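Hi R.,

As promised on Friday, here is the backbone we talked about, encoded as structure tokens. Could you run it through your design pipeline when you get a chance and send me back a sequence?
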């Protein structure tokens, strides 16, 4: 099978919202009047971001999901994607399952694949995602203000705990792993939440490298600090059982792969945030507040600072 046959068979779908999709030197896109284009890209590398024997359907889902999560953090409506693949060989069964997972999620959020590239090499997956937000309305990292409440969506730590189990750092029972694994292999991008937070949140980010690392980006860009309540962190029953152990604590605070949203909102809009959560049937939890200064302090139930060994994932450390 040639490169072009591969693209035609597995990655060419109708793109009604694009003036021109897959098959030419470039796609042609029409951005709606009054909207700004939000663009982000993420690369997943075999052995770094996923295991070589990862389920291809779930990997197709995750490849797009981690990029959709960036659109959610910006409060942008996802529209189009580019997909570049480096493949060690042409395995049609693998490609069909991967594309099925990718397009199932793409269809759910109305995303059209409008181009990309394929080449031979070690397995690498790279998506460029494009979305729209009204001019001046996109959520950013730089808007947090002293007095804001710090919120997170969903639950923290499940994905990191499942990964720690697979890496042999901790041993989970079969039911415990089954409860945590979906967060690692099939994260759910919080697109609806990001859209609902436009005009409500002062800042937002998605939690990909760990709560402390990603909240740290908000603090740095906004030139503020934060105080967090460790007991308030929303965790599953499985993660809760391991919070007394270093791996459990690290998973909740700095494990990464959550793909939930962390955002800051004026304290006066507390009830509004709860209404948004109820409307979306998504738990939203206040975990702290923005303060003056440039550091983030996590307090235990007695108000004492908690020592955290690592702040989050870093590819070069």
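Update: got your reply. Pasting your designed sequence below so it's all in one thread:
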């Amino acid at each position: 099978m040639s490169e072009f046959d591969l693209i035609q068979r597995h990655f060419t779908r109708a793109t009604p919202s694009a003036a021109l999709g897959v098959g030419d030197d470039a796609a042609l896109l029409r951005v709606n009047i009054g909207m700004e284009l939000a663009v982000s890209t993420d690369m997943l590398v075999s052995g770094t971001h996923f295991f070589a024997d990862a389920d291809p359907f779930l990997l197709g889902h995750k490849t797009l999901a981690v990029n959709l999560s960036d659109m959610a953090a910006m409060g942008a409506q996802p529209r189009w994607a580019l997909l570049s693949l480096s493949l060690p060989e042409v395995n049609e069964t693998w490609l069909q399952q991967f594309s099925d997972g990718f397009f199932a999620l793409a269809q759910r959020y109305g995303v059209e694949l409008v181009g990309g590239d394929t080449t031979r090499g070690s397995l690498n997956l790279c998506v460029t995602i494009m979305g729209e937000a009204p001019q001046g309305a996109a959520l950013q990292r730089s808007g947090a203000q002293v007095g804001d409440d710090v919120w997170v969506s969903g639950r923290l730590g499940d994905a990191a705990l499942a990964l720690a189990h697979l890496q042999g750092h901790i041993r989970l029972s079969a039911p415990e792993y089954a409860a945590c694994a979906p967060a690692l292999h099939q994260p759910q991008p919080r697109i609806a939440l990001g859209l609902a937070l436009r005009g409500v949140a002062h800042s937002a980010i998605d939690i990909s490298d760990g709560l402390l690392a990603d909240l740290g980006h908000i603090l740095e860009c906004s030139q503020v600090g934060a105080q967090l309540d460790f007991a308030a962190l929303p965790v599953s029953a499985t993660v809760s059982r391991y919070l007394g152990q270093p791996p459990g604590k690290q998973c909740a605070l700095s494990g990464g792969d959550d793909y939930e949203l962390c955002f800051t909102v004026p304290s006066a809009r507390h009830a509004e945030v709860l209404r948004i959560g109820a409307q979306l049937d998504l738990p939203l939890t206040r975990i702290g507040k923005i303060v003056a200064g440039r550091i983030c302090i996590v307090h235990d139930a007695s108000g004492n600072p908690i020592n955290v060994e690592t702040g989050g994932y870093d590819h070069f450390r």
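One thing I noticed while checking it: The domain at 3-134 is CATH 3.30.1330.10 (60s Ribosomal Protein L30; Chain: A;).

Thanks again,
M.
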